[in-house]
Amino acid sequence: MRVLFLNPPPVGGVNVVREGRCMQRTGAWTAVWAPVSMATSAAVLREQGFDPKLIDCSVEAVDLAALERAVREWAPSLVVINTATPSIETDVAIASLVRRAAPEARSVAMGIHPSALPGSCFEMDENLDMVIRGEPEYTIRDTALALRDGVDLASVAGLSWRDGEGRIHENDRRLFIEDLDELPFPAWDLIDTGLYRLPFSNERFLLVATARGCPYGCTFCANKIYYGARLRKRSAGRIVDEMQWVAEQFGVRNFLFWSESFTNDQEYAIETANEIKRRDPGFSWVCNSRVDTVSPELLKAIKEAGCWMIGFGIESGNQQVLDSVRKGTTLKQSADAVRMAHEAGLEVTGHCVLGFPGETEETMQQTIDFTRFLKLDYVQFYCAVAFPGSKLYDRCVENGWIDNADWKYFEQNFSVINTPQLSADQVMAARERAFRQFYRQPRVVLNSIKKIRKPADAANFARMVKDFLTWV
User: Fold this and answer.
1) CA 134/CA 438 separation, integer angstroms
2) Residue spans per domain, the chain
C-alpha cells in the first residue's frame, strides 16, 4: 500500500515551515527546515511494510499543477498533509486535489492546528477525510493499517474522521509515546537533503529530535496539545547513533536539535554533549533553551561538543509582562544566561515577543532596549499570535481581541490582536522599529560582514537579506 506524505506548496510564493509549534515563513531564518515529523512517520510505515513517498513542495518547486500530476501518477491509497496555522486553508484544500487526482485515496491532515480545531478543518474542505490529533507517528501507522486491513477507523486512537454519510467522529485521545527511542530514524532518503541549507555557511543541515513535551506554563505556546506537558527524552546514545548514521548515510554533519528546550534537564543535556564529544567531536549543531536552565558547566560542555549557537526564549524586557504570560523567568536570569553563553564562546539568539495582552508602547520599547543591552548576536522579534491550542487563543477569543479571523494573518510577522492598551497596528510598528534599532547597530553589522569570506558567501548573504526582508 502506497502512502504519500505532502508538505504543501508555498502560499502566495511564501515557503512555510510546518513543524510542530514552529510555523513561520522561510524568511524568519532564511532557511527551510527538513520535515522531520513526516520523515519519521514515513520510517514508521516502512517498518510495517508500507511504501512511503515524501514530496516537500516547499523546496522542490512543486506547484499545485505538478503536485496533482504526481498524485495521479503515483496513485497512493493514503495521503498525509502537513499543515500550519497561517497556511491552514490552502493546506487543507489539498484534500480536494487528492480527490480529483486519486479518487480512491483517503486524505488526512496533521499538525497543531488540526489537533486544536479538527472540526474547523473538516469545514474547510468537504473532501478532507481524517484529522490526526496530537503526536502523529503512531496514529498515522494505525490509520494506514486500518485502511489496508479493512478495520473500522473508530479503533484508531487520536483520529477524527468523516464517514460515508458526512458525519464527523472523534475517537479517543492517543496516549503519548513513552519510549521515544523505539522510533526509527527519519527516512531522509525520501528527500533531497541537499535542498536544506544553513544561513551564512550554506552547508547542508538536518533536524535531530532530542525530546518532546514541556512542563512550563507559557500561555502563548500551543505545543502541549501536540506533545503534552511531560518531558520525554530520547537517550543520549540514541541521539548520537542517529547523528553518526546521518553523517555516514547522507554526509550531513550539521544539526538543529529539535525540542522545546534542549536544556530542560541539565544533567541529560550534559550527558548528551559528553556522548557526542566522546564519539564524534566533529559535529556542528545548535539548540534552544530557557534562560533558567543553563549553567557555566552545561554551556562549556555543549560548546566542547560542537554546539556553536544557542537560542534563548527571552520573550520580554519587562518583568510584569513575563509574569503575565507565566514564563517563570526573570530579567536577571536572561542577562546571566546570555553572559554565561558568551563566556563559553557561543553565539546567542534571543527570541522576543511584542504585543502580549497588557503590554503598552513603553513595555515594548523596554524589550527592544533589553536586546541591545544583552548584546545578543541575533534576535527574532515576533508579534504575539493567538495560535489555536494556546491559552492566549482562548483568552483572546473570550475577550473579543482578535480583529481578523483570516488564518493567513496568524503568523508571527503579523498582529491581529487588539487589546485596550494596544492596537495591532501599534504592535506591527513596534516590531518594525525593533528590527531597525537592533540590526543597525554597528556591532551587529560588523559581525555579519565578518562571516563573508569568499564570493559565494556574498551571494548567499544577499539571498539571506532578500528572504529576511519578507519576514521583517
Assistant:
1) 37
2) 2-170, 197-447
